[in-house]
Amino acid sequence: MSAEIGIPPHLRITDGKNFRLSSIDTHDKLGREKLTSRTRIRDCVDRMAVLQGRLAAYASNGILVVLQGMDAAGKDGAVRHAFSGLNPAGVRVTSFKAPGPVEKRHDDLWRIHVAMPSRGEIGIFNRSHYEDVLIERVHPDMVRARGLDPDAPGFWENRLEDLRNFETYLTRQNILVVKLFLHISPQKQRKRLLKRLDQPEKRWKFDPSDLAERQLWPAYTQAYEEAIRATATPEAPWYIIPADRKWLTRVMVAEALLATLESLHLKEPSADFSPALKAAQEALLKDGHN
Amino acid sequence: MSAEIGIPPHLRITDGKNFRLSSIDTHDKLGREKLTSRTRIRDCVDRMAVLQGRLAAYASNGILVVLQGMDAAGKDGAVRHAFSGLNPAGVRVTSFKAPGPVEKRHDDLWRIHVAMPSRGEIGIFNRSHYEDVLIERVHPDMVRARGLDPDAPGFWENRLEDLRNFETYLTRQNILVVKLFLHISPQKQRKRLLKRLDQPEKRWKFDPSDLAERQLWPAYTQAYEEAIRATATPEAPWYIIPADRKWLTRVMVAEALLATLESLHLKEPSADFSPALKAAQEALLKDGHN
User: Which parts of the sequence belong to the Polyphosphate kinase-2-related domain (chains A, B) (predicted)?
Assistant: First the structure.
């Protein structure tokens, strides 16, 4: 494969110390061209489909892809464009909404763990366990309503440590964790939200309460930065994906999963037969029902 | 309550460093008498039932009771005797057997987390996440069959660290974790296994493969010791319960859950009415349908 493909190293965060979102341009094209982006996604998906077959056959590893980003950052579109073409038998997409009454009674990671891919599977989380350290951090009254004190010393550090430990555990269990932050500018979000209102086909996605969250942009940016700083590790890196251009986002999401699959070095199964399979083949060939 | 009840402090392990099972007598009566043990269990259960009602009403905490012990240590009997009388709507007992094909594909803690009690509930695990660091440790070929290397540096330390982190996380989420090791002698196990064979009503519990595990007693003892050393913490202690006398085991298991419930200081709900409830009461009293 040529050298220009893949995700540029500066977008792969494996040590979050001092990380700042403002250091990454939301509008960057990363040297790609829109014209060839569809072809590149198709090539990625074709290769992913081959490797996905081996992932399922060996069943020694699973992959969890976490998609996070502000409203209208392009999460749904990235799933549709970058992963259509994979065998849905081995892909499970879970879109996490606000927790319902049963989920609220359980510990935060309960619904997350229930949805976790097994070895051999690819799991895609559209929003994830990170929502708890974003929304509740920006709205500390939600924490108080649960009888907890968000101002207690170490409260957020502990919650982030729990997420980091959880991902370390998953990695040790051969579940690879890939986290993608779709990095959009507030200007671009405004344009996309206005467009949603203009298009009857997309209007259902518009929720007036999104505007209140939009006003909290700096607080969300800070919460994201602290989450990424605390949980970007070599075994569970964060990828920061410029998201002002939908086509680029989709290519990069496809590149990220492809790179993860390639990192497993899933070898092509041997063409050689075991003696048992050889005997089975001979038995079938001699079978009366031909 | 009188001073003699409760679990003696030396059986509550909150710092596992240098812990040895041989320091605790399996045959100890702990100053209790068999004659009064049934009454004491009943008293414990009555008090637990009251506190369980409040636990469900407040729903701010959940409780997980982990029962571990060699075969015939009395786990099933402890559940039946120490917890019958609680409201089953708020108690969930999960007996973990050897993992099936779906469970094996998932990470080790997946089936454990799925069964976790929510806030307001009491969960009893008859065997638990600890089985993985016991059976597989004694039978390292099971690890190799999963494509992992049990001799890799830090392999068991990492698995135990994952369990410790998991329990720390649960505690932070207001799920209290209480771990009970039913400590039986090999002599007493022999007697109980022979008795199982003699009694047609109990014979179904006898599995000839248990005898092979019995031969591995020293290896299991060591695996238990290392597990307890690595995971006994102030927030998720291990209780070592002498288990050569069934009646004592059952009292102690009841005492352990009662002590945990008491530690939550679940106050009796106030007798005072809120204005809204007062108004509701008056409306009902004036209601035409009387």
Answer: 40-264
CB-based contact (8 Å) between A170 and chain B? yes
Contact B107/A166, CB-based, under 8 Å?
A: no
| Residue B159 contacts A where some CB pair is shorter than 8 Å | yes
Distance CA A148, CA A134 (A): 16
Verify whether the Cβ–Cβ distance A110 to B102 is below 8 Å.
Answer: no
CB atoms within 10 A of CB B96: 17
* Least CB–CB distance from A108: residue in B60, B166, B173: B173
Overall fold of domain A9-286? Rossmann fold (3.40.50)
Please state, in angstroms and rounded to a whole number, the distance separating the CA atoms of residues A104 and B174.
12
Tokens of B134: 């016991």
CB-based contact A107 B173, cutoff 8 Å: yes
* pLDDT category of residue A100 using cuts at 50, 70 and 90: very high
Cα A223 from Cα B201, distance rounded (Å)? 60
- CB of A117 within 8 A of CB of A175? yes
What is the distance between the alpha carbons of residues A272 and B245, in angstroms, rounded to a whole number?
60
Q: What is the pLDDT of residues A146-202, one digit of tens each?
A: 888 999 999 999 999 999 999 999 999 999 999 999 999 999 999 999 999 999 898
Q: Residue B81: which residues within 8 A CB-CB, separation 6 or more?
A: B41, B250, B253, B254
- Order of strands, sheet of A91-95, starting from the edge strand that comes earlier in the sequence: A12-13, A238-242, A175-183, A62-69, A122-126, A91-95
Q: Note the pLDDT tens digit of each residue in B201-213.
A: 988 988 888 899 9
Q: Model confidence over A36-81: pLDDT tens digits?
A: 999 999 999 999 999 999 999 999 999 999 999 999 999 999 999 9
Name the residue ranges covered by the structural domains of chain A: 9-286
CA B11 – CA B164 distance, rounded (Å)? 20
